[in-house]
Amino acid sequence: MRTAFVIHVEPKARAQGARLDRDAQARLEEAIGLTAAIGLRVVESLIVPLVRPVPATLIGSGKVEEIAGQAKALEPEVVIVNAQLSPVQQRNLEKAWGTKVLDRTALILEIFGERARTHEGRLQVELAHLSYQRSRLVRSWTHLERQRGGFGFLGGPGESQIETDRRLINDRIVRIKKDLESVKRTRGLQRQARKRVPYPVIALVGYTNAGKSTLFNKLTSADVLAKDLLFATLDPTMRGLKLPNGTRAVLSDTVGFIADLPTELIAAFRATLEEVLEADVIVHVRDASHDESAAQKADVLKVLADLGVEMDGEHPFIEVLNKIDLIEPEVRAGLLSGNGREGGPVAVSALTGDGLAQLLSRLEAELTRANISYRLKLPHADGEGLAWAYRHAQVRERRDAKTGVELLLTIPPQETARFAARFGKNLSTE
Q: Can you list the domains of the chain with their CATH numbers?
């Protein structure tokens, strides 16, 4: 297994900053998790305090020399620097340490390159990678020649070093953007088709490894990859969901967010994350058992704001405290006893199923809040009309009489015209 030396650079200003900011040790552990996510074995890790950045190497010369000695003894195949490095800083550190150096952006791009499975996902990651590479022009981009995941930061058997050319990169970026525009149009058509059905969309968002995919699988009986692994899900997945009183919706599982998400990835994944922008309800899934849960929440809200999603009431928003099976029993009992009251968070365990009934009821309440009540009378013989009404509305009550069937319905505002056209005078406001 390939080995890595992980270094977290902790700016002094951040260490004294906002209370919600994660501490240096937590950031180091996250960097170690990211490194493990691409199959590297961490042989050493280190926190380097930073008073002020050094233009040539980011960190001071004393620390550079100290790490050079450790690298010579350990002989790691790569040193991961959990910070953003300029091309000059990266080259200078590689020369000083005698090994390959990846910064946080390159590491995350490498993970995304290995995990993306769909054509769209790979295009998005490649665009982010090329945007990152364009400023460096010192690496190979042999990922254009091979089928396996990743982007060649780490090298591999049989790879040839091809000197990067700005014109070729720019041409490739133009082609990828054109392909992604086609993907964007296709997604737009799919959204329009859903609106004609129409089913409301519920988007799951959250910090990576918060348990979104496990929750998605539990609610929809799907089989999406769900592992205790950073960025286990990259490609968005959508499935139908039937809520307790018959309301139908589409549930969308999205890529996990992370602190200091590279700007290249925010831009590249905008097409995918438009599902969040278009969602009728956004569900923020948090890992309630994580020591940094509050800081992770702040990171997710920041990324959402970068995407144009402000928690200002325009987007219905539900906070879900997941993984309560991992917290103290008395704390868990307290969360479950007040589950979702007065718009508060809903505590669940996607693993055991605790709290899921309350979550489904809360989702239905949010989706049907603006619905309008109607009364529909149908003859017994109109079984097709009866089935249609059940499919497209929430049936609150059914009364059977000799003359026919009477339904009390709640109908989304956008559906009233279709109901009026379908049932005419048999439909009346309650």
A: 3-98 (3.40.50.11060), 109-179 (no CATH), 199-367 (3.40.50.300), 372-429 (3.30.70.240)
Listed range (53-57, 200-204, 357-361) with the worst mean pLDDT: 200-204
Instruction: Give the span between the Cα atoms of 294 and 283, in whole angstroms.
Output: 16
Amino acid letter for position 360: L
Residue 150 CB contacts under 8 Å (≥ 6 apart), including other chains: 38, 110, 113, 114, 143, 156
Per residue in 379-404, pLDDT (tens digit) is 999 999 999 998 888 888 999 988 89
Say what percent of the chain tops pLDDT 70: 80
